[in-house]
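Example 3.2
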Amino acid sequence: MDAIADLSLRERFERLRAMKLDLDMTRGKPCAEQLDLSLPLLTSRRTRSIQDGADCRNYGYLEGLPEARKLFGEYLGMPAELTYVLGNSSLAVMHDLVVQMLMRQLPDEERKWDPHHEIRYRPVMLCPVPGYDRHFSICERYGIEMVSIPLTDQGPDMDAVESVLGGPKGHRVFGMWCTPKYSNPSGITYSRDVCQQLASMKTAPGFRIFWDLAYNVHDLEEPGDELANFFELCRAVGNEDRPFIIGSTSKITFAGAGLAMLAASPRNLAWFRESLFVRTIGADKLNQLRHVEFLYSMKGIRDHMRKQAAIIKPKFDAMCEVFDRELGGRDIASWQKPRGGYFVALKVKKGCAKKTVSLAGELGVKMTPAGNTHPYGKDPNDEWFRCSPTFPPLEEVRLGAEVPAVCLRIAAEL
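Structure, written as tokens:
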């Protein structure tokens, strides 16, 4: 390491190029060792409901198996009767909700949306940044105007939120994206005060918050961060229709072969069920049954996630150690060591993010495009990019962190 430290940045860059690396630091994907923990799912031969003996190979249970609704309602902090267990993708659930909001009036709504014509009917979505690119892609696909809201270490900047809601676009704001626990990619968890403000703020009729609990049990340390029960906060101030609470097991069991879930008020679920009924005859109940049998309780889920944390926490530690060594005290980057989730997000010297990602690509390290943390893929200050250490082996994580660190230092000198 001392010999390497004595090299100039350009010499280190060329040495790294000569290694002909091929590392993937893009999306937050589970590694094979994490996925292996869920292999017992594939050995289940149960076909009948644990709770009522129904044959899960047949039609029925559009809202999900009773035992699955009970377990994953508890996972979301909701009662079983207000929880639907659906297919394999929470992104698909969020997509369906947005499309249905554009096509059909919500129970408390008095407006008709038209994303592509008259501006007064064009919907607006509030988007905390840095944020999740797939949230933004849904809006962009359907012509929904996105307004960026800075994300602080307590959650969305509520002064900025209130400013938009009270401004000329306020009557058109029909929703807001939130990843409130271990937010993608910054890793912050919303404070109770921010959650309370989101629950009680004045909005136009029909406003909905997409409460995406993608990392609800993905603690890297114990105890993990505590998140307020958002539905209870909303209900206490008469806004129980405000949240759509969404979750999945994609980063708990098998990515793309797990379960998605939606919890909401009785009126919201009745509204959603109308479209669900014409779209599907029901989700894969055998998969729901397998998951209940395998995870069995919230204790089972947390025990399973401790095993995952034991695999990936050393990778997060290694990545942050490299960033501390290479970037600490240089005034060109800041980052937060995450307590959970799947990412490390770096806020870098203005104008340096895209150049850093491009240089890293030259060295064989694939990174998520720098702008994708913002709506339309445009970070106005070109200062954010994210890394995920979960997928590569531990020995590759250090290299995968060293490369963007060296590249950032070079970009900052240009």
